[in-house]
Every structure is written in structure tokens, then in C-alpha cells.
Write a structure and sequence with these properties.
The complex is a heterodimer. Chain A is α/β, with parallel strands linked by helices. Helices cover 24% and strands 39% of the residues of chain A. Chain B is mainly alpha-helical. Classes of the chains: A alpha/beta, B mainly alpha. At the A-B interface, helix 2, strand 6 and strand 7 of A face helix 3 and strand 2 of B.
Chain lengths: 131, 110
């Protein structure tokens, strides 16, 4: 058994696609219509690992999803975390693209982290391991 | 009337001092202040992360949230909302009053 998909619950799949591809730099792996309402099976992968785990941009239409997301954002909690080579460099790159950070890079023991807003109702952590 | 106002005022100040001493009496709350002094504008998550990762203080989010409430009531921490986010900052002004209290002062009015 292997992990092949992990989800982020997004308020709008098209806006999410723009953010996760144009800003973060992921590429589309699967884009399949699955409902008459326009929902898609929309997954992205990292260009550094095209056969790796896929990120599913999943509609947050379930009534429990929005209160859950809002409660996490209120406390600044990123539900999803991405590994990068250099958090400071990635922070500067994304900030220059207009990405909003709620936590600028901070070294915390074994890790350096920063937290950004994905514009679709989620906070995302980026992390690297300190040597 | 003036006397009553002074009494009321002094009791208010003393109670506020008590809140500050109480807030400072706990080592976790002092660590929170250390971290907020290092950088302002932290979310609850960042504070929890710093305590866990830097200081091995694996308190629950609820516990840290309660510590923050004590610090906010003492005036040592302020919270502000920016859109959907909530940030916390340190405010050291209540500390000034504490130390002034026992300093010799010739012109001190009681």
C-alpha cells in the first residue's frame, strides 16, 4: 500500500489551480470532470517528482468543511505542509509574486518553517530540515 | 469624592499588578513572552510551534490559548485581527509600573 493522493479543500478549483500552479509551481497531473456542477478530479504534482504523491484540489462544498477551515485559519494552523530546499529563498520568491505569509521564516529546532495563505481558505506550511 | 476615586483607582492598579505577577509566575508564559519579544505578530500556531520545537514544551493548543488569555488580561500581550488571521504581540508597558513601585522616590505621591 502506498500514499498516492493528499487533499486540500479549496473554495474554488479554478482559482486554486491558478495559485498552486502559477505561484507554487506545481503541474497538472489529472483533470477530469466528475459532476454536472463542474467539479473536477484535479490533481497536481511537483515538477521535481512527477510520479510522486498527487495533490488533489478538492471542492470544500461539504457543510463541515468551511467551519473546519475557518477554525484552523483563525488559529494560524496550516493543515498541509510542503518540503522545500530553502524556506527563506522560497519565501522571498513567493512574496515577490504577491503571496501573503502569516508566518515569515522562523528556525525552530530541527526545522525552518513559514506559513502562507493559498487564497482558497487554507494556510500552507513550507519547511526544510536544518542541518 | 476625590478620596473615594483614589481608593478605587489604587485598588484597580494593585489588582492589575497582581495580574502581571500572576502572568509572569508561570515558566511557559515567560517562554511565550521570550518568543514574542524575538518576533511580534505571531499566530497561535507559531507560538505553539516555537514552544514545542525550540523548548520541547508540548502543551496542547488549548493550554497555550489559556496561557495567552492570562497574558492578554495582564496587558503583557495584545492580540489583533487582520482579516481572517489573529496575531499576538508583546507589550512591556505593564512591567514599568511594577519596578517603579519599590524604587526610592523623594517626590513620590501616595
Amino acid at each position: 500500500m502506498r500514499i498516492h493522493v493528499t487533499s486540500v479543500l479549496v473554495s474554488n478549483q479554478e482559482e486554486a489551480l491558478r495559485f498552486y500552479s502559477d505561484k507554487l509551481g506545481f503541474v497538472v497531473k489529472n483533470d477530469v470532470p466528475i459532476s454536472e456542477a463542474g467539479d473536477r478530479w484535479l490533481t497536481l504534482v511537483s515538477p521535481e517528482d512527477p510520479d510522486g504523491v498527487e495533490l488533489l484540489l478538492e471542492p470544500d462544498g461539504h457543510p463541515a468543511a468551511k467551519p473546519f477551515k475557518e477554525a484552523l485559519v483563525n488559529d494560524g494552523i496550516p493543515f498541509t505542509s510542503f518540503l522545500v530546499t530553502d524556506v527563506q529563498a522560497e519565501f522571498e520568491r513567493l512574496r515577490d509574486l504577491g503571496v501573503r505569509f502569516v508566518q515569515e521564516p522562523a528556525s525552530m529546532g530541527p526545522v525552518t518553517t513559514a506559513v502562507l495563505d493559498d487564497t482558497c481558505g487554507n494556510l500552507i506550511q513550507i519547511v526544510h530540515m536544518n542541518q | 469624592m476625590i478620596g473615594k476615586w483614589l481608593l478605587a483607582y489604587h485598588r484597580g492598579v494593585r489588582e492589575a499588578d497582581g495580574d502581571v505577577f500572576k502572568a509572569l509566575a508561570d515558566p511557559t508564559r515567560r517562554k511565550i513572552l521570550d518568543e514574542l519579544a524575538e518576533r511580534g505578530g505571531q499566530t497561535l500556531f507559531e507560538i505553539c510551534s516555537r514552544l514545542a520545537m525550540k523548548h520541547q514544551l508540548g502543551s496542547s493548543r488549548q493550554a497555550i490559548s489559556q496561557h495567552l488569555d492570562v497574558l492578554i488580561n495582564s496587558g503583557l500581550v495584545t492580540s489583533r485581527r487582520e482579516g481572517r488571521y489573529k496575531f499576538h504581540d508583546i507589550d512591556t508597558r505593564p512591567l514599568d509600573r511594577l519596578t517603579d513601585r519599590w524604587k526610592p522616590s523623594e517626590n513620590k505621591e501616595l
